[in-house]
Amino acid sequence: MADDPLHEAGRVARETLYVGVGLGLLGFQALQVRRRELERELGVAVPPRPADLTRLLDRIAGRGEPG
Question: Does residue 67 lie within any of the structural domains?
Fold first, then answer.
């Protein structure tokens, strides 16, 4: 079979997608590891959502109400 440019472009696009997804998963795992390290250092559970994290930081800084 001769090299079909369309087939080759599809293969390259698919491989690029796989690499991007893989790097995204590795980045997410690294963030999870760092979050767990922070939990150990702070002695409190660090919530995974940004809004929850903001409330936690406000509580730590003494600006917010517990809860």
Answer: no
Domain that holds residue 18: 5-61
Q: Return averaged pLDDT per consecutive 10 residues of the chain, 67 residues in all.
A: 82 95 93 88 77 75 65
Rounded to two decimals, what is the model's pTM? 0.56
Q: Which has the closest alpha carbon to 23: 31, 66, 10?
A: 31
Residue 64 · residue 58 · CB < 8 Å? yes
3-state secondary structure the chain: CCCCHHHHHHHHHHHHHHHHHHHHHHHHHHHHHHHHHHHHHHCCCCCCCHHHHHHHHHHHHCCCCCC
Residues 53 and 47: beta-carbon distance below 8 Å: yes
